[in-house]
Amino acid sequence: MDLETLVGLAHSNGASDLHLEPGLPAALRIRGTLRTTGEPVPANLLLQIAQKLIGDGQWPQFLERRSADLSRTIQGVRCRINVLQSARGVGLAIRLLASFQATVEKLNLHPDLKKLVNHTHGLILVSGATGSGKSSTLAALIQEINLTETQHIVTIESPIEYTFRPHRAYIRQREVGRDTPSFEQALLDALREDPDVLMVGEMREPETMRLTLSASETGHLVLATVHSSTCMEALQRVVSAFPAEIQSSVAGQLADCLVAVIAQNLRFRPELNIRVPECEILMATHAVKNFIRNREYFKIASCLETGADHGMWSLQRYRNWLETRKSWSLPSQNAEVTESDLPAPDTPNITLPAFLAPAKPLKPEKRLGHATLPPAASPDGRIEIEPGEGEFGKILKRPGE
Question: Does position 147 have pLDDT exceeding 60, yes or no?
Fold first, then answer.
């Protein structure tokens, strides 16, 4: 029994999560329900797995914090892993991520969500409980920008869950703990990196929330997640994270920069054998902004019910739309997208000044260090070129050699 075998077992059974605890059988979360399988997992095996995953360099930090977040590709499956210390020993909580590039269509989300990323600045919040698909929805919105806009996107995640392939957009992904010490430092850095779009994986600490709000006020489109079950609670959670004496100013700041809030949960549909996101979508109209500014969150529910003309969706109305939906994206149809399947970017041709233009290649007999043999591919796929003696090498030779 090893981690690769267990992840392969979870993937073959369609599990979304794999839980490993010393002295207990492995637990798989399949369609929202936990099921145990196999024999109890020995504590020494999990300790060895954790040490291998974390590495010798980061192991002292794990012993100090008693937890670590990381991402790995195991058995061809992208996994988000939390290593934790519990009363029984070292355990693991593993989230199995989708192997395809998440899009609005593939996640069975409403196409209206695409309109949200047309904004050039402001804040889009994606909320929901743990395991409700927030990260996938966030990835789908980023992918929509990637396929349609020539923008610079910076993501700050802990850890990186979906790896984006830049198409039209220029994408940088930073992992907290590996590429940057904290969300706060990464947000400060991002403001000096000329971003058009920022993605903040988690907003938990007040300082992270403050910097996220500031970034959305300074001409950037910011997408972030927050843990809450409804749109109203998401807004209330952000404001209440700050000290009471500044909550009024934070509420005003949030009202000014807010674009939309998406609250979602996953519901299993037996006829499709998949879990489908059910969403509540709140748009930042003038009325909603006034309620946020005055901290009258209880009035937001009525805006959701009556705001269909503004692109809002109450949970019940969204469920009614799901019931009438005819076409669905199923996991069997979500094959990995290749570069040839994506639309060709219409990037304009840029003429470089003469001093920046690439030099014309020399004729073979005039090249310095010209290879006498064609490049050969090594077993690991690298191109190896055998250098030959050129004019420069002759110049460097000492007299008499």
Answer: yes
